[in-house]
Amino acid sequence: MDLNDIWAQNKRWILGVFAGLIFFWIATSIVSSVYNAQSAERSARQVPGSVAKEEFYDQRDRKTARAVGEQLASANQRLIDELDFDAPDRFLLAGKGDPDLHFDQVARYVRSTLVDKSQQFGVELAGSSLDWDPPVGREEIQRTLMGLCVLHNAVERLLDAGDEVRGASGDAVGLQAVEKFEVSKKGRSRNSRRGGIRRVRQRGQKRASSIDVSERVDEYEVNFKFRADAATVQLFLEKCRAQKPAILLQDGFKMKSGRNPGDPLTVMGRLVAIDVRDTEASS
Q: What residues does 226 pair with on adjacent strands?
């Protein structure tokens, strides 16, 4: 079969293929002239490099950002210094030997010193008014010791407040009775001290760039109930706020008047101490 026979038999198919090739060539030329795909591809490849070289913030912006960062860090440190509950060494397990024996010694110390002081000031305070659950295990013992530290500081400030009010006015009721000071188990410890090791913050230490508050804070709560006059209540709350270590008053504070005029107020509420730890030291 020669070419003429092939042409005669496949004329329509050959013409269709040829027409398709011509149409494809024309379309490609039009698209290239309008959109210049190669040029666009080259531009796209150059974008990351140009963006990386471009400075979005000038030197003044960076200087301002550093200054703001330093101010925030300073404010954060002042807040920590103001609120952080730094317990005396007596209430820490580190280096104290057997945890159970040390806890028993501290518990007896807290109960006896507060009962003795209340008797000295003429205030009703039974040993059973100071309450806490017996802790089990080193971590729980350390938490309860911190709670005892909050309780001890709070009752001492309350006794001092009542004594000062009575000293200022011989007719004042002052503090009449301590009915309850109880270490609460509701305090939060997201990342407690392991084995009772005290975390030490280094002021010059570089801090983490991202900080989860719940990983830095332990809370120790104490529930209370006592009877006193208004002047003693006010002075007690002021001592909790102003003296170190800091103790804060939680929501739910209540005062109930007595049956007769001049009767002491019955005061109930909850105190909390906040222990702020360094993230690097606790990791």
A: 178, 267
Q: Name the strand (E) or helix (H) holding 274.
A: strand 265-276
> 255 CB contacts (<8 Å, ≥6 apart)?
233, 265, 266, 267, 268
Q: Where are the beta strands (DSSP E) in the chain?
A: 130-131, 175-183, 217-228, 248-249, 254-256, 265-276
Here the tokens at position 185 are 């188990």
Pairing mode of beta strands 217-228, 175-183: antiparallel
Q: What share of residues in the chain are helix, strand, coil (percent, to 5)?
A: 55, 15, 30
Residue 206 pLDDT greater than 80, yes or no: no
Q: Tell me the per-residue pLDDT of 66-111, one tens digit each, with 9 for 90 and over.
A: 787 777 777 666 656 556 688 899 999 999 999 999 999 999 999 9
**Residue that has been written with the tokens 């005062």 in this structure:** 255
CB count in 10 Å sphere of residue 20: 10
Q: Are 276 and 84 in contact (CB under 8 A)?
A: yes
Query: What per-residue confidence (pLDDT) applies to 12?
Result: 62
Contact between 271 and 240 (Cβ < 8 Å):
yes
| Radius of gyration for the chain, computed over Cα atoms and rounded to the nearest angstrom | 38
Torsion from C-alpha of 125, 126, 127, 129, nearest 10 degrees: -80
Q: How many CB atoms within 10 Å of residue 114?
A: 24
Tokens of 89: 């060494």
Which of 220, 224, 269 has its CA nearest to residue 245? 220
164 touches 235 (CB < 8 A): yes
CB-based contact 123:197 (threshold 8 Å)? no
User: Which carries the bigger pLDDT value, residue 44 or residue 118?
Assistant: 118
Which parts of 207-277 fold into alpha helices (H)? Answer: 230-242
Residue 279 clears pLDDT 90, i.e. is over it = no
